[in-house]
Amino acid sequence: MIPENTTSTALEHYLACPSKWSSVGNYKGPLVLRRRVEPARVDSWFIPGTPDPWIVLMTGGKRTVEVRDGKRWRKAISGPGQVGVTSPSTTTEIRWRSESSAPVETIHLHIDSVFFRRVTAECGRGDPNAIEITNALSESDPLIERLLSTLVPQLRGPDPSGHMFADAAAEMIAIHLLQRYSTRSVIVRNAETISRKKLRQVEDFVDANLGENVTLDEMARVACMSVFHFARSFKQSTGETPHAFVRLRKLEHAKRMLAETDWDVRRVARAVGYTNASHFAAVFREKSGVTPAAYRQSIR
User: Which residues form the HTH araC/xylS-type domain (predicted)?
Assistant: First the structure.
């Protein structure tokens, strides 16, 4: 028997087929992601509601999708880049059929309701419980397409800063939902600059923890700010996102170790938080234009 409501984590059991990949167990932040290949045809499927806003991005194939709305069915043609949004606690009856020979591929994202309400409150506009997310069947949304398409490889890959990217993306997605898919117009206050003293404290914290998976929440706590305001204010103050800043500091530290020690690349990678030396070498080459070994040779 299908319940009326469940959690975003447990929703996996009520989808039309198993997901190809899920962030559950790999990432402990405010998002749940799934990469899926859907059946070519589903005549009727009931999905329980969750407390969290739910986004589905089409990434491959083309389908006619219908969702029951009372006594009628809402219908749309959905292809790559099209987005569907389901409001919290909404039980869905859905059916679809593929309209092409390509597999129907999707990315599902759930954003934690407690986190979402906190972002709503920090926007500083009214009672967060009075703002509701509206349903959307098939919308063109380039921002959501770009973020979700980037999030999956960030969380699947071995880059230790991938989780920080996901945390920052969660803030952006929450704000975007409030601005485009909510029952009230939400105006986000402009970001403020962070004092030089606080920036130095954040920099010192990152430098002292380059071998760890530094989180956005930890950096915000050092600055004595909420994650919401810190992420936006940090970029306003430095011109870089926290995610990009941490990757740069790791790279700079790796260059010093390559120059000053005889450690092999694997050991240098571990010292800056990379468990996969090949991935570290690829990131190093992408940012520096040379491999770690070639860089060491060039300065000696």
Answer: 200-298
